[in-house]
Request: fold
Amino acid sequence: MVERSPWLTALAHAVMVLGLLIVAFPLYLAFVASSHTAQEIIQAPMPLLPGSHLWETYKTALLGGGASAGSTAPVARMMWVSLVTALVITFGKIAISLLSAFAIVYFRFPFKNFFFWAIFVTLMLPVEVRIMPTYKVVSDLGMLNTYAGLTIPLIASATATFLFRQFFLTVPDELMEAARMDGAGPMRFFKDILLPLSKTSIAALFVIQFIYGWNQYLWPLLATTSEDMYPVVIGIKRMIAGGDSANQWNVVMATAILAMVPPAIVVILMQKWFVKGLVDTEK
Reply:
C-alpha cells in the first residue's frame, strides 16, 4: 500500500504544472503571435498578450493571400489535403494490417513464418531508406501531386500487423471452433468475431496512425510540387522564405495553430478508447 503524503502530493502536482507550463508556453506564444500584425511581432520585446488582429490573421491564413515572400496558398486547402491523406493512410494501414495478421494467424500455407518475418523486417527499412526508389516508382507511374502518390507508399505497416497478430494469438481457439461448427466461413469469423474484439486496438492504432499521417513531412516534400497538393506541414515550411521582415509570421503562427487542431480533436474524442486499447488486457 502506498502511503499518501500531502508534501509528496503537492510536489507531484507542482512537477505536473511545471511540465504543463513548459509544453504550453510555446503554444501560447504562437497564439499571441497570430493575433498581432507581422510588424508588431518582430519588435523587441515581442508582445506577450493577445492583440486585436486575431480574426483577420486567421481569415488571411485560411483563404490565402497577403504579401509574404513565401507561399500564400490557402491553408484551408492544405488542411483538406492533410485530412484526406491522414485518413487514407490510417484506414489503409488498419485494413491491410488486419487482413495480413488474420491470414498469418488463421491460415496454413507454405513459408508462413517466413512471410511474417519478411513483413517484420521492413521495420528496419523506413521511408528515409527507400525514398529514392519509391520516388522513382511514383514518378514513373505519374502519381506525383496526387493523393495516391501521397498515401500509397506509406499505407503498409509492419508495426500494426505485428500488434494485430499478437492480439489474434490470444483469442481462444474455442471461438474459432464454435464459429466453424455454426457454419461460419473465414470472413464471417473475421467480421463477426475478430473485428468486434479488436475495436479497442483499432481505436488506439487509429489515433497513432492519424497523427503519423497528418505530420508527414519528408515524403510530401518530395511528392508534391504544386501548391494545390501541399499538406499543411509542408505549407508551413513553404510560407517561410527570405529574412524575418519578408515573412508574415502572424500568418505562419496561425497556420501552426490550425495544424494542431485536427490531431488534438482526434486525441480528445478518442482518448478513452486510445487508453483502453493500450492497457486493456481483457479479451
Notes: The CA atoms of residues 184 and 192 lie 9 Å apart. The domain at 75-279 is CATH 1.10.3720.10 (MetI-like fold). The first helix runs from residue 6 to 33. The chain has one domain: 75-279.
